[in-house]
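Worked example 3. Consider a protein that binds pyridoxal-5'-phosphate.
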Amino acid sequence: MTTTPFQSTPHPSPATPERVAEVLADPGFGRYFTDHMVTIRHTTDKGWHDARVQPYQPLPLDPATMVLHYGQAIFEGLKAYHQPDGSVKTFRPRANAERFRASARRMAMAELPDELFVDSLHELLAVDRRWVPTRPEESLYLRPFMISTEVGLGVRPAAEYLYLLIASPAGAYFASGVKPVTVWLSTEYIRAAPGGTGAAKFAGNYAASLLAQAQAAEQGCEQVVWLDAAERRWVEEMGGMNLFFVMGDKVVTPALSGALLPGITRDSLLTLAADHGFEVEERPVSTEEWEKKAETGELSEVFACGTAAVITPVGHVKHAGGEFSVSGGATGPVTSALREALTALQYGHAEDTRGWMTTL
Ligand code: PLP
Ligand code: COI
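Given these inputs, the predicted complex is written out as structure tokens:
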């Protein structure tokens, strides 16, 4: 239930039912947007105010708006899932709200209260529920974000911010579906360094990743694996996903070093893997350990996880010095079991014993 007053302006000409059906027939990822968006403003003197649900529309921005020059921009990503009883639920939204505040702190931006973040999701779903896909594996991707909107060229934290929430029906993130991907170990470029912005969901992190992503694509890889800045040896994460390694009865993920994003899927899978009887370990994992144990078979599976990509197996690894396979390039049983456990919870086919699901 919403506790904040939002001013609501319905779209004067929302998409026709035929258009919604056409989009939902093949949504892709991030290509189409619902009829409405939420906006909330922040100024140093007024605090958070002017909460609105309004027609999805372009933003008028003065060319000297600070975000265009100095890049104070953060975002979140979560999904709304159609449930068997016809309701719509989302997964651990308060964790996203908390991470959004942490990202804001790191970028010296105003912190949106968790209550307002969660309320904004309810408000958007109240008007755009018909855009939630109902087929298996599909969802409505929710994209909360915030930019600095003060006008001026002085380099300092802005005094004005705009929070927005938009939504986009989502099919599979990878065109290949749940097939193992090939990844590129990036030793030329890095994503983040200790003391930097790697743990924030900060737009600049993604801008800084694109050149290496293009390099990965040239090598025939779908994704980049980022390594630590100092030694280029320790595995951190992928472009939009965290990584897990299955070694015997252990499920291992790189420890949060401050340079990688603390994924909510990552955190949830540490719990679900323990439920499945695995010993879970958060510790540094080197590229040598990955390659060596993949060869000996001590490492049987590797998978990536995140909201958009869910759980995606990693089948092949390429680097400047060669390449190797994991699991013979196939999807392993632990990857499949954890994927099933997570999606059963999200789509309402398994009991939510931890209160992770929130009705929208
Ligand atoms: N790492 C990065 C860089 C990401 O952008 C994401 C996606 O949000 C993740 C990891 C996975 O995080 P989550 O599971 O919270 O979606
Ligand atoms: C997500 O999983 O929500 C992400 O933000 C990853 C990517 C689309 C940037």
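Take a moment to read the result before moving on. Residues 277 and 283 are 19 Å apart (CA to CA). The pocket of 2-OXO-4-methylpentanoic acid (ligand 2) is lined by residues 77, 240, 306-308 (CB under 6 Å).
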